[in-house]
């Protein structure tokens, strides 16, 4: 629980709204990167440990690699989109205005037809909703970035008095819930999904909505969720594992046995002006191909699509540097640059795989004699073949662009690279990387057809008429030499 820290919001659309101004200023890029980093904790005190158990505790410390956190290059974009979504969710919902409770009355009037929601739509809150999609490869770090970003936003803000522009203190006794985080693990029905939201609201507020509505029908649950969102001033709904939604049907129905789709969620909250952040794998992109309205409204504010991490990106250099230097082995290690390239080859640029392979290799080496403990390319290859063989298929498919071989990767055929070789501010820190390292990275990248960094969906080409001709080709055929050749004359 955090007490509101009011600012004068520069945006006139948000000025005078305590729900927005009470959030204070967002964190700057420098503040985010400073607070995000979690160093490796591996210093061991073996002074009182029997010698034969030193290896055990070394392997115990190696597992701490999973707790280390290196800030990804896209983290700033994730944080800013969530923060902007929360602010946008309060447009038209200023608690200092007498008419903000009209939404509650509208919800009550629409209780028998909650999806049509004609009374709510008349309030025109839909126009202020901010809907964004964050999708990417499994293991890319989407969920961890989202959770990390949410940790820098207070889950509950209390208001007592608000300093109005006139100088007077306005009584404003409010407990505000800026966001709700929901994980949609299974293809649940609508009732189960609504129950999950009510449970999340209960956890955030201390209420007991889920138990009170345990026997309610879907229509009643929709109304209960909407009322709770308004009463507790919830600005944004963050829904993780969005790939588990069912495809949207043209005729949206509600019922206990009806599957939950993105369109259902969009209809549930966006009419209230509540923002929605969807997080999922690339499989979530398939859900947009069924209906244009779903696509347009679900990515109202755009999307962030994350393919493999580029081998020469600041994040990958930092991550691999931390992985191979955190544990000091008696035999040392191969060249950092070569290890970085090898980890990228074995993981296809997926951080979660790189961390797992490194810690498994270090644990394997810890069983050897000290003079044989050396982190090498061969050691990484050996442990990968022994312990991570099931991953070799999808990793190779990513490296060579054979996305059709795996269901989870098929959606990547729709994507193209936006900035495979990013030039950003953070990269300036690495301008002094040795020429040999750059040459190795360039040689490595030429071997694979790997999609890296941010990607976007390729626009569909318009259908071509059978009567259309290639003007350039026809013009070339009609040049003097070609024309004389067709007539059989001299050239």
UniProtKB/TrEMBL annotation:
InterPro entries tied to this protein: AAA_22, P-loop_NTPase
MF terms in GO: ATP binding
Pfam families: AAA_22
KW ATP-binding (keyword) present: yes
Record domain ORC1/DEAH AAA+ ATPase: where: 132-287
Assigned keywords, A-Z: ATP-binding, Nucleotide-binding
Protein name (Swiss-Prot/TrEMBL): ATP-binding protein
Species name: Agarivorans aestuarii
């Amino acid at each position: 629980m955090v007490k509101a820290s009011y600012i004068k919001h520069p945006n006139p659309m948000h000025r005078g709204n305590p729900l927005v101004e009470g959030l204070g200023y967002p964190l700057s890029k420098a503040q985010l990167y400073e607070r995000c980093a979690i160093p490796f904790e591996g210093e061991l005190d073996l002074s009182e440990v029997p010698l034969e158990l030193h290896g055990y505790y070394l392997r115990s410390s190696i597992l701490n690699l999973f707790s280390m956190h290196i800030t990804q290059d896209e983290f700033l974009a994730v944080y800013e989109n969530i923060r902007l979504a929360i602010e946008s969710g309060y447009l038209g919902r200023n608690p200092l205005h007498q008419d903000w409770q009209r939404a509650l009355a509208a919800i009550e009037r629409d209780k028998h037809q909650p999806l049509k929601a004609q009374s709510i739509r008349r309030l025109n809150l839909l126009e202020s909703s901010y809907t964004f999609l964050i999708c990417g490869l499994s293991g890319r770090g989407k969920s961890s970035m989202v959770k990390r970003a949410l940790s820098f936003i207070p889950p509950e803000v209390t208001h007592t008095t608000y300093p109005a522009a006139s100088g007077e203190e306005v009584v404003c006794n409010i407990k505000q819930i800026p966001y709700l985080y929901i994980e949609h693990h299974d293809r649940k029905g609508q009732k189960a999904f609504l129950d999950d939201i009510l449970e999340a609201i209960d956890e955030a507020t201390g209420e007991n909505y889920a138990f009170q509505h345990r026997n309610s029908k879907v229509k009643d649950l929709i109304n209960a969720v909407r009322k709770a969102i308004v009463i507790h001033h919830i600005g944004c709904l963050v829904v993780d594992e969005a790939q588990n939604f069912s495809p949207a049907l043209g005729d949206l129905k509600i019922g206990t046995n009806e599957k939950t789709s993105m369109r259902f969620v969009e209809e549930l909250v966006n009419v209230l002006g509540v923002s929605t952040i969807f997080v999922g794998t690339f499989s979530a992109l398939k859900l947009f191909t069924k209906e244009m309205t779903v696509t347009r409204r679900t990515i109202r504010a755009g999307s962030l699509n994350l393919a493999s991490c580029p081998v020469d990106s600041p994040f990958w250099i930092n991550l691999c540097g931390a992985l191979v230097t955190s544990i000091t082995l008696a035999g040392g290690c191969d060249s950092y640059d070569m290890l970085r390239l090898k980890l990228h080859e074995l993981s296809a640029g997926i951080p979660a795989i790189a961390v797992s392979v490194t810690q498994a290799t270090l644990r394997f080496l810890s069983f050897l004699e000290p003079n044989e403990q050396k982190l090498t390319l061969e050691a990484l290859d050996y442990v990968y073949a022994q312990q991570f063989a099931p991953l070799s298929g999808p990793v190779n498919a990513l490296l060579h662009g054979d996305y059709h071989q795996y269901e989870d990767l098929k959606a990547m055929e729709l994507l193209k690279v936006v900035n495979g070789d990013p030039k950003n501010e953070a990269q300036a820190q690495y301008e002094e990387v040795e020429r040999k390292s750059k040459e190795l990275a360039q040689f490595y990248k030429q071997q694979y057809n790997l999609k890296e960094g941010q990607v976007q969906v390729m626009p569909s080409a318009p259908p071509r008429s059978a009567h259309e001709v290639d003007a350039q080709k026809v013009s070339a055929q009609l040049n003097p030499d070609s024309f004389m050749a067709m007539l059989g004359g001299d050239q």
